[in-house]
Write a structure and sequence with these properties.
The protein is α/β, with parallel strands linked by helices and about 425 residues long. It is built from eleven helices and 24 strands.
């Protein structure tokens, strides 16, 4: 039986509730929200131990493949592979694809499914819980990690633990999944001591896991099996077959398998966890000043309390405000009540309806060769600054392109003239 644990890092989310910093082309898991490194890098670093873990398998979209690969290189982490999901299909198809690929390498493997946008402040408790969960998983149980709640929380689902599992101290049969409760029920859950927050992390024995998917979701597994079998390999990227993968139902692993299986287990743990689902969650875990403020960047405050204020480029000043989130980027500013920060995704939906690029792209757009950003737009010209990646040449290069677009931005490309200047 294999002793290695195979980490699977789920990195396909868009982080709409953390707009304007998180956008679909460069979402929260690729951003340094809680420290100097991106959240994907922090997640990979937690399981970068060759004696316990195999190299991680990354699941992300094709748009994020080069950024993800570059961030792992910066950490000197060589992944098992980077699997490209051609369409968003939630966690059940993604984990089914990962299990099929790991099964080819090690049929007796335990895979550790980790979202790449979580904060864990107590890595020692995290690793202790992994040891317990992996041992339970090797008995054929599909094991999830429950977070011992610190307070009544209506933004998370809950897990009710059942009887203890013989021979595995700290592990229990999983009795019930509960959807996000109202405040009164959440308080009752916390007071009972029998409930944990649903972390979305799992230790899964690949062979029993695939057997349960086949029993409970045969159409899903058939679609994903075909997507893996006909996938294209490109360097270290695996492109799942688009048509086959898109034919799988979009469903979470909770709804597809964990709520229905007879073999579910839970390991409750207190490890300083947070899923950073909104700006309010980031305010909750960040260090605050004496007035309760979380400040990042060029910010000046006077008579301000319990606010999160983040500046990416310009000076942000605040006077006489309370309980707000203010986030400034190159091309957008968000101002919201902290208690309403969950609703930022509605702004993103409105941007999409209006065809605004700010839902998708930052002012600086990243490409495999580097990045570019607009410098100025006029009636008869557009200019942009592009930078090549140092990883692709001996040094970084910066070029400003000035494009003559004639009297109309709709002029045909052949009529446009561009001048390039090194900067």
């Amino acid at each position: 039986m294999s002793n290695l644990i195979y980490p699977v890092l789920l990195s396909g989310g868009s982080g709409k509730r953390l707009w304007p910093l998180s956008r679909r082309a460069y979402p929260k898991q690729l951003l340094p929200l809680t420290g100097p490194e991106a959240m994907l890098q922090e997640t990979a670093a937690r399981i970068d131990d060759a004696t316990s873990f195999a190299p991680p398998l990354i699941l992300c979209t094709g748009d994020h493949r080069f950024i993800s690969a570059a961030q792992l290189r910066q950490r000197d982490i060589e992944p098992m592979g980077i699997v490209l999901e051609p369409a968003p299909r939630n966690t059940a198809p993604a984990l089914a694809a990962a299990a099929l690929m790991i099964f080819e390498t090690d049929p007796e493997a335990v895979m550790l499914a980790l979202p790449s946008d979580h904060v864990i402040k107590d890595p020692e408790a995290f690793h202790e819980s992994i040891e317990i969960a992996a041992a339970v998983a090797r008995t054929g149980r599909l094991t999830t990690f429950g977070i011992i709640p610190e307070h009544p929380e209506t933004g998370f689902g809950y897990l009710r633990r059942g009887a203890a599992i013989d021979g595995h101290a700290g592990a229990y049969h999983l009795a019930e999944f509960v959807e996000k409760p109202d405040e009164n029920r959440a308080r009752d859950f916390v007071d009972s001591g029998d409930y944990s927050w649903n972390s979305g992390m799992f230790a899964l024995p690949v062979a029993p896991f695939l057997e349960e998917i086949e029993r409970l979701q045969p159409d899903l597994l058939a679609s994903v099996r075909k997507a893996v079998a006909t996938a294209e390999r490109d360097l270290n990227f695996t492109r799942l077959d688009p048509a086959a993968f898109a034919s799988a139902p979009s469903i979470s692993i909770d709804h597809a398998v964990m709520e229905k299986t007879r073999f579910a287990a839970i390991v409750p743990v207190d490890m300083g966890w947070n899923d950073i689902g909104s700006w309010a969650a980031l305010w909750d875990i960040a260090d605050r000043d004496a007035s309760g403020n979380v400040v990042t960047g060029d910010v000046i405050l006077h008579d301000v309390e319990n606010c999160l204020v983040r500046s990416e480029k310009r000076l942000v000043a605040g006077v006489g405000i309370r309980d707000l989130v203010i986030v400034e980027t190159d091309d957008a500013v968000l101002v919201a009540e902290r208690d309403s920060a969950q609703n930022v995704k509605e702004i993103v939906a409105t941007l999409d309806l209006r065809g605004r690029s700010e839902a998708e792209l930052h002012a600086r757009v990243y490409r495999p060769w580097g990045n570019y950003e607009g410098v100025a737009d006029g009636e008869r010209f557009q200019s942009s600054r592009s930078r090549s990646s140092p990883a692709r040449s001996s040094r970084s290069r910066c070029i400003i392109t000035v494009q003559n677009i004639g009297s109309s931005s709709k002029a045909p490309p052949s009529s446009r003239k561009a001048k390039k200047h090194c900067c």
